[in-house]
Design a protein that fits this description.
The protein is about 85% helix and about 0% strand. It is an all-alpha fold and about 450 residues long. Phenylalanine binds next to helix 1, helix 2, helix 11 and helix 16.
Length: about 450
Amino acid sequence: MASGTVSREAFGSRAGFILAAAGSAVGLGNMWRFSYQASEGGGAAFVLLYVVMTLLLGIPIMLAEFGLGRRAQLTPIGALRKLAGHRWARVGYVFIIGCGLILSYYSVIAGWTVRYAIESIVRGFPGDAGAHFAKVSSGSGAVAFHLGFMAVTLAIVMAGVKSGIERVSLVLMPALFFIVIGLAVWAATLPGAEAGYSVYLKPSLAQLKDPSVWRAAAAQAFFSLSLGMGAMLTFASYLSRRQDMPASATIVAFTDFGVAFVSGLVVFPVIYSLGLQGAVSDSTVGALFIALPGAFESMGAVGRVVGLFFFIALAVGAVTSAIALLEVVTASVIDEFGIGRRKAAAGTALVVAALGIMPATDLDLLGLADKIAGELLLVIGVLLISLLAGWVLPAEMRDELAAGASPFWQRQVPRIVAVLRWFVPPVILVVLYFSLRGTIAAIAAFAGGAG
Ligand code: PHE
């Protein structure tokens, strides 16, 4: 049963696969993480580098994961064992642990978004946004919303690839696109929106020269595209060889970038038109969970409606990403131990839910977890994927990526594999060096703050 390709689940349609992969990619990363990284990294300089990283690193690495997953028709551990031997299978374990760790704090943040959405209906946004956020992000309330969010995610994953993940993505993703675009159009009508656009869209040369902005842009591209954790690999394991993967990866990457970019067109004008940039500060949560709710509150009834849609969009993005994270671990348990889907999903969700109680009650720990699992582990994972695709299995990759691809993309396949071999690993080594330094500094700061 464990290796039975006969009973392996599969996506029902190409659109279903693309929307599920885009659903995994588009999430809190596009709105929460993108906006705080962009405001830390100097706005437009970060945005520009982020586009470059998505194109030059993101798409090739996504294709490497797609190729590995579809070729093996297995989840990360089994796939790497089958294609590259037992030593590589260990990398699969790193992915599984990484996904579990990310989900544990991701679900906490998702819980906040659900709470803000509900509160905007029942009582509107509170006057003191900072104090309110302190309440939302601590204590039993934060734990309760985290657990509730995990329960919803679990229900979808339990239903399976086609009737759970694919069905939910086909409905929710288009809804999310409409909401975000609608919000951006509304934001453009705000008086003083230009100040926000100019921070967001005019890069400064000084910031472009800063290596930490480069590092942050690369790491954000990996996080946002769900790379380096075996998520895209797992989804591709449910694909048939008739699918055009290079075309699909390009669509997913552009969709992901598009949603992040348009979200910025909401966040920056709103914050700057109301002069709330002080509340953004350099905190991981300032822009989205303090400055924006503050802005919505000051706009009265309109703010309440707009804020409701904004937080619904965030929660929708979060749930389609969380199902991907839970699916990776669940499907791995199914493949490795031959346990049924429902039991595997429930067991996994229970462990992750318990783990999330810590970041739910400690914001500094949440920030640290994002540095370690959301950045460092991802960068390591991406490096290993590119080495595997470019150096260990280049011939298999060329064959797999060409299968089902249009003539145009078939001609690009050798180039893509060459990029994975020669270009991606050295660039990521540099990123890794800076990430390691950043993470060590963050750990030291955390230990200092706690002690
Ligand atoms: N890409 C998701 C987001 O942007 C997060 C994620 C990372 C999901 C890694 C799966 C794997 O929110």
